[in-house]
Amino acid sequence: RVAGPPVRVVIITLDNHLAGLVRRANATLAAEASGVSIQMHAATDWAEDRDALQRCLADIAAGDIIIATMLFMEDHIQSVAPALAARRAACDAMVCLMSAGEVIRLTKLGPLNMGGGQKGPMAMLKRLRGAKGASGGTSGAGQMAMLRRLPKILKYIPGAAQDLRAYFLTMQYWLSGSQDNVVAMARFLVSRYADGPRRVWRAALSAAAPIDYPDVGLYHPLAAGRIVAEVDALPAPPRDARGVVGVLVLRSYVLADDASHYDGVIAALELRGLTVIPAFASGLDARPAIERFFMKDGAPCVDAVVSLTGFSLVGGPAYNDAEAAETILSQLDVPYVSAQPLEFQTLEAWGASAAGLSPVESTIMVAIPELDGAVAPMVFGGRSDGSGAPCTGCSRGCRFDNGGEASRMRACPERAETLAARVAGLVSLRKTARADRKLAIVLFNFPPNSGAVGSAAYLSVFASLFNTLGALKRAGYAVDAPDTVDALRERLLQGNAARYGADANVHARIPVDDHVRREPHLAAIEAQWGPAPGRQLSDGGSIFVLGATFGDVFVGLQPGFGYEGDPMRLLFENGFAP
Fold first, then answer.
1. What are the CA-CA distances from residue 194 to residues 64, 179, 221, 314, 392 (Å)?
2. How far is it, in rounded angstroms, from Cα 287 to Cα 248?
């Protein structure tokens, strides 16, 4: 063990997924090098906890080695960029990685200048990412291979190239973020850049080279070592498996030993009788994992793909290459579901919130993956606050035991089971002959009772529905559609409507006794709409389902929601049961 003057290493990053690992790395450093410490701050904490931002700013102001990474959201940048700029001249080193350009340009490693436009280090970083184009840019595997190659090349070039090498080595340590690599990263930067009274550390410390982990691999909590290279090394699939599901996970969570949220989903899928292939790829590009484990000889070897990363398929949280994602997903041609772990709030806060996902989460984790072609977004887990208080998101009241370490990821059991049920349904549907599938289409109908059925600005909904039914029939589905668009419209909007005094054809009448006996959310519905069967879509003894069947395709009309006769309540009511 060596000792010396205090050296404060400060890390500012997007979220908390390496928080536990950094705490353990800090304990290791304290035992090896008394005086060197690491503190980490997550930008996702700042919106709900202003004190967290103040602690971060205070650590930046006192930091000697500062590492900023994954800062690309405008509010995060504005929160810390002035403090980073103010500290830049006085700190020993500042390494800004995988962030917006204005953050990266704050890098300070000896004389290294991260400006230069089309030349210099910034140009090299752009080349490392790859140019967007018809090919979808450089793959994640190619980026990581180049990242490992560059320090080896730069090692033999004297002068400022050694600082550029240090920059890429730091990125390599961070992207392979195990506890050993985080410790070595801190030792490396301190041994090279500690200055002033801290300069004595340069001779006192040394650092191991970055430990390389598989760029592309498989993860399973029950596999030997948890990380394996071949599908055959995964636990044996269930007997009479109902299908095969490829699951995409983030390598960084696996290396950080913080993957319990993935474990919950894997277990839920396996309980459904599905064979699960959980795969990861380095960097921000999942295509190498898909190509290696989910395809064989150019054809899919899975029945569905579930992304648990919460981010875009190509680009992660930093950028989105929807064109590249579309290309690989078209080759797969299987259902692609994107589910989200809570990254910007805790499970307990989400469960208690009436708002659900924040606008940032909805954009990054729902809207952007949908541009890739993802469907059925839903939360499956997240980070517990470690309080041990019951989650109020559903009636189960789960308590999440963090094993004494705060901010660990956990699966939400109810959501994981629901996700598994949906995926099992998609797999079963894919294995069903088209002629045996039953489909449902719901037409927009708001506000109801106002002639709004199938209305949409500049869109011919009934003509589109007619064409869709025709296309389904030609594709092999059992469809019996009217001969014209007008006949289709009349069948839906008139039909038996006059007999029941309804606004459209009544496809089915649900007896109120059946509804009361079977409906699990009866209390919430009656709190909004009154005792069953209510006054809407009802004849007093049953509830109407509006729509019509065309062969094995049911076309339904969106039921009413809100309070059409009370516009102020419609605007300000906290929530509406259907």
1. 8, 22, 40, 37, 48
2. 10
- The pTM for the full model equals 0.82
Mean pLDDT along residues 485-499: 94
For residue range 341-390, list pLDDT tens digits in order. 998 888 888 988 888 888 888 888 999 999 999 999 999 999 888 788 89
Q: Which burial class, exposed, middle or buried, applies to 42 when counting CB atoms under 10 A from its CB (0-12, 13-18, 19+)?
A: buried
Contact 115, 105 (CB under 8 A): yes
For the record, the structure tokens of 52 come out as 């967290």
One-letter amino acid for residue 428 of the chain:
S
Q: What is the SS3 assignment for 98-165? A: CCCHHHHCCCECCCCCCCCCCCHHHHHHHHHHCCCCCCCCCCHHHHHHHHHHHHHHHCCCCCCHHHHH
- Is a pLDDT exceeding 50 seen at residue 141? yes
Q: What is the DSSP string of 553-566?
A: EEEEEPPP-S-TT-
By the 8 A CB rule, do 175 and 145 touch?
A: no
Displacement of CA 327 from its chain's centroid (Å): 20
CA–CA dist 331, 299 (Å, integer): 7
Query: Residue 178 in 3-state DSSP?
Result: coil
The pLDDT tens digits of the residues spanning 430-465 come to 999 999 999 999 998 876 555 678 777 778 899 999
Q: Six-digit token pair at 434?
A: 């088209």
All residues at 6 or more sequence positions from 251 whose CB lies less than 8 Å from its CB, including other chains: 213, 217, 280, 281, 282
Residue 211 is classified by DSSP as: P
Cβ neighbours for 527, distance < 8 A, ≥ 6 positions apart: 577
The rounded distance, in Å, linking the Cα atoms of 56 and 52 is: 6
Unique residue bearing structure tokens 């969106």: 558
Dump the DSSP string for 333-373: -S-EEEEEEEEEEEHHHHHH-SS-S-HHHIIIIIIHHHHHT
- What amino acid is encoded at 171 in this protein? M
CB 279 within 8 A of CB 219: yes
CA gap 39, 56 in Å, rounded: 9
With H, G, I as helix, E, B as strand and everything else as coil, classify residue 1.
coil
The CA distances from residue 77 to 40, 41, 44, 53, 90, in Å, are 16, 13, 12, 12, 20
Can you read off the two tokens belonging to residue 90? 């006085």
**CA separation for the pair 438, 244 (Å, rounded):** 23
